[in-house]
Amino acid sequence: MSNTPIKIAPSILSGDFSRLGDQVREATAAGANYIHLDVMDGRYVPNLTFGSVVIENLNEYTNLPLDAHLMVVDPDRHVNNFIKAGVHHITVHVEAANHLHSIIYGIKEAGLKAGVALNPSTPISAIEEILPFIDIALILTVNPGFSGQTLIPSALNKATKLKNIIQEKGYTVEIEVDGGVNPETAAMVAKSGADTVVAGSAIFNNKVSISQAMNNLRSKLQEPFN
Ligand code: DX5
Ligand code: ZN
């Protein structure tokens, strides 16, 4: 376990898309570490969200890294548009990429951080060969496509396995846990070895303000280390 605070990346998937800029600004003021952008094409996942055109002005509302999670088929075809749109991290699915090494190489060559995402049923071994080349490993703890789902504990176990491999080999890969992270699951997620958590419905909802939601989640993530 580490005492480094776990980073929080609010996912605007749960936000109000009609006031995207304001929501990003509020999440930034509330102490977010990244802004997580869930890009869905209606093919790789059933849902359809937004593309690079919608997010290209978001840097005007935040100085935080824009963390794009591409849930699209043929991510190879889209990566350059997201680089041009000004995002800082691009994560593609290992299950969707045809030539993963080449995509990762292209992202890094453009000066961005490159990530690989794994669905709940995808084993850690699927990223063994790419691990030395990536900056982020995103462990999905729900099936991709929607916010507000329940965390799958067996998927979370992969974060711990991966943490051990990363430490053993001395890689500098950040582990992002994405899906079903909320104040109730935060302690187990924190213990799993996550460096960053993505949170959608726990941050953007009608029950509490964004800043209150951020404070609640942050304190629960810290609890196991107190
Ligand atoms: C799932 C997305 C997540 C989602 C998380 O497809 O990758 O980022 O927005 O939402 P919550 O935190 O509500 O599970
Ligand atoms: Zn995501």
Question: How would you describe the overall organization of this protein?
Answer:
With 226 residues, the protein is of the alpha/beta class. The protein is 30% helix and 18% strand. The protein has helices at residues 20-29, 52-55, 79-84, 100-109, 153-169, 186-192, 210-222; strands at 7-10, 35-40, 66-71, 89-93, 113-118, 136-140, 174-178, 196-199. Helix 3 links the parallel strand 3 (66-71) and strand 4. Helix 6 packs across helix 7. The termini are close together. The mean pLDDT is 97. Residues 11, 36, 38, 69, 178, 198 line the site of zinc ion (ZN).
In short:
The protein has 226 residues and is of the alpha/beta class. Helix content is 30%, strand content 18%.
Topology:
Blueprint: E1 7-10, H1 20-29, E2 35-40, H2 52-55, E3 66-71, H3 79-84, E4 89-93, H4 100-109, E5 113-118, E6 136-140, H5 153-169, E7 174-178, H6 186-192, E8 196-199, H7 210-222
Parallel strand pairs: 1-8, 2-3, 3-4, 4-5, 5-6, 6-7, 7-8
Percent range of helical residues: 25-40%
Q: Using the CA coordinates, give the radius of gyration.
A: 16 Å
Query: Taking all residues together, what is the mean pLDDT?
Result: 97
Q: Shape, please? A: globular
From the N-terminal CA to the C-terminal CA, the straight-line distance is 11 Å
Total number of strands: 8
Order of helices and strands: EHEHEHEHEEHEHEH
Strand content: 15-25%
| Total of helices | 7
Major sheet attributes: 8 strands, parallel
Order the strands across the largest sheet as they lie in space: 1-8-7-6-5-4-3-2
> What ligands does this structure carry?
D-xylitol-5-phosphate, zinc ion
Main structural class: alpha/beta
Q: Give the uncertain stretches in residue-range form.
A: none
